[in-house]
Every structure is written in structure tokens, then in C-alpha cells.
Specification:
Structural class: alpha/beta
Number of domains: 1
Order of helices and strands: EHHEEEHEHEHEHHHHHEEH
Shape: globular
Distance between the termini: 29 Å
CATH architecture: 3-Layer(aba) Sandwich
Largest sheet: 9 strands, mixed
Helix content: 25-40%
Number of helices: 11
Low-confidence stretches: none
Mean pLDDT: 95
Radius of gyration: 19 Å
Strand content: 15-25%
Strand order of the largest sheet: 1-9-8-7-6-4-5-3-2
CATH topology: Rossmann fold
CATH class: Alpha Beta
CATH superfamily: Alpha/Beta hydrolase fold, catalytic domain
């Protein structure tokens, strides 16, 4: 069994009392006020349309640093985008450390619903890998890093899983923040908190309506809209627009299995909050991990939070900065 760096029993990360509740941490992660200090990341970005496998097109934004030490590739969470608050905040932080930033949108995320006729689902890994590889290739003579949040953390761990077989040659370190490890166990948690359920229900419904508008006559998601929980919506979506027979079959198709990372050769840090309300953080303890991986469990942090102060930097920001100072 992997030895977890378990900070949940120490004072390593000790935010003020009022910031410790899991929903405070989780809500702060997506607050719009975090975008304002990062406006230059958006204004200086070059918009790119990537041609990925099987003709799939993805949108990305590249903000080159004038004295770049390398490039950070940022993966957002489900129903997030390259312009999510946590993505922009993290991008600003690493940019200030001297690194270029490459922010990737998944299919049907970030108002890209018209780019591809086919629908997004979380199993679609190859196109995300293609996007990451293109981001890393922008600065091939320098190190590349991946930071993934939530589902993006899951994608990041899948990149780590295949790195030995299909490497991104200049990939130096992967940081998975609140990654989904076992979707079968974690996905139903979305409906257990009314605020989280409402957030994802509204986000997904809006996304599906954008897809309908982009391809009128091709898609009609009325059977999905009839349901009032995200899990029931998932069942209806899979039944009508996928080859999966059950939600468990679908969820298990993109989970991280016990030994998937046992022979991983790329430096990887997995950062989880013991109090995560969106996923089962203890899934981390079930993994057999190679010596290249640092699994970290914090007592506080919620989902994608880890705030010690309202405006940051977050615990994971400071951790990333320390890795850059000591390893690069």
C-alpha cells in the first residue's frame, strides 16, 4: 500500500476557522473575483484551434511568457473551461513564476459546442492527450508541466498512466488537484449537496442547450431535462447518446485503477482534501503508486480550494512554486 503524505493530521495547512468549512473552500475556488487579477492572461493569449485525432477540434489559449522557463498546461474540471476562475488564478500564479500558460478546453466546454458534431464524455482521453502534447510542443526545448483540476486531475493522471508508452517528451511534472479517482463511487456525491447539485445541474443543462442550438435537428435532449438529479440525467444521456449500458460501466471506463500508476515514471503530485464534498478523497489510499508520485492528503481544502487567505495564493500554488524552486 502506498505511503500517503498525510497532512490531514498536522497543522501544515491551517486556514482561519471561518475558511475551514468544506463549502467555503469549494465555493471560493470558482468565485469570479479571482479572475480579475488574471485579466492579462486572457488579454495576452493567442487563441488556437487544435486539430486532434479523428478530426476532433479543440480550442486552447496560449499566453507566452517573454522570458519563459517552460510551459504550464492547465486542465479544467467538468463543465468548467479555460476561463474558469481556478484555471485563470492558477495560470496567473505560474506566469508570475516565469512560465508560459496553455489553457485547454475539452470538447463542448467553453462555448466550443459548434466545433464538433460529436458529444463530449469523460472517457474521451486521446483528444485531451493530443491537446496536451500540442501545448508542450510550443516550447519543446523547455520543461512542460500539467495542472489538472477535478476531472482535469483525472485526465492528468491518465496522461501519467500512458507517459511510459506514449510520452510527451518534455513533460517534467504533473499536478493533479482534487482528481477524480473512482467515478463510480464519487459521481453520486454530486447529488448529495443541494448547492453542488444545482451548480452542476444548471451547468450541464446550459451546455446541452448550447449543443442543441449548434446542431438544430440533430440533438434533442428533452429526455434528459425531465430529470431533477445529475445521476438521473446521466442515465438518460447515456441511454440516448452513448454505447454504455449503465452509468457504472461508463464511470468505470475512465477511473484510475489500483495499479495504473504503479510503474509511472513522470514526477506527479496528487493533492486531495480529506473534506472534499464532490469526490471520495480516501480513494487515494487504495492506489499503488510508484516512487515518482507524491500523494498528499490535507485536512482542509474542499474541492479545488485549499485557501489560506481569500485572495491566495492557495496551498497548491505555494507547493507548485516550491517544486519549481527545488527541481527546476
Amino acid at each position: 500500500m502506498t505511503q500517503i503524505i498525510d497532512y490531514s493530521k498536522t497543522d501544515t495547512f491551517k486556514p482561519p476557522y471561518w475558511m475551514r468549512p468544506t463549502m467555503v473552500q469549494t465555493i471560493l475556488a470558482s468565485r469570479r473575483f479571482r479572475k480579475k487579477p488574471a485579466i492579462h492572461i486572457q488579454e495576452q493569449a493567442e487563441t488556437m484551434i487544435l486539430e486532434c485525432s479523428d478530426g476532433v477540434r479543440l480550442k486552447a489559449s496560449y499566453t507566452p511568457h517573454p522570458n519563459s522557463k517552460g510551459v504550464f498546461i492547465i486542465f479544467h474540471g467538468w463543465e468548467g473551461s479555460q476561463d474558469s476562475a481556478y484555471v485563470l488564478s492558477s495560470s496567473r500564479f505560474v506566469y508570475e513564476q516565469g512560465y508560459s500558460v496553455f489553457r485547454l478546453n475539452y470538447r463542448d466546454h467553453g462555448d466550443t459546442h459548434a466545433l464538433n458534431e460529436g458529444l463530449f464524455n469523460s472517457v474521451l482521453f486521446q483528444e485531451v492527450w493530443d491537446g496536451a502534447a500540442e501545448g508542450a510542443a510550443l516550447e519543446t526545448d523547455k520543461p512542460a508541466f500539467i495542472v489538472g483540476f477535478s476531472l482535469g486531475g483525472n485526465f492528468a493522471l491518465r496522461v501519467a498512466r500512458v507517459q511510459k508508452v506514449t510520452p510527451i517528451k518534455n513533460l517534467a511534472h504533473i499536478f493533479a488537484i482534487s482528481p477524480v479517482i473512482d467515478p463510480v463511487a464519487s459521481a453520486p456525491m454530486v447529488d448529495q449537496n443541494i448547492l453542488i447539485k444545482r451548480y452542476f445541474y444548471n451547468k450541464w443543462t446550459t451546455s446541452l442547450r448550447k449543443k442543441e442550438a449548434a446542431f438544430p435537428g440533430l440533438y434533442d435532449f428533452s429526455p434528459v431535462y425531465q430529470h431533477k438529479t445529475v445521476m438521473d440525467m446521466t442515465d438518460a444521456f447515456l441511454s440516448g447518446w452513448s454505447d454504455y449500458n449503465t452509468r457504472d460501466e461508463y464511470f468505470s471506463s475512465y477511473g484510475i485503477e489500483k495499479d495504473d500508476l504503479a510503474d509511472c515514471e513522470v514526477r506527479t503530485s496528487i493533492i486531495m482534501g480529506k473534506d472534499d464534498p464532490v469526490l471520495r478523497a480516501d480513494d487515494l489510499y487504495d492506489l499503488n503508486l510508484s516512487s515518482c508520485i507524491s500523494p498528499i492528503m490535507l485536512k482542509y481544502g474542499g474541492h479545488n480550494g485549499f485557501f489560506g487567505t481569500v485572495h491566495g495564493p492557495t496551498w497548491y500554488d505555494e507547493y507548485i512554486a516550491e517544486i519549481l524552486r527545488t527541481e527546476h
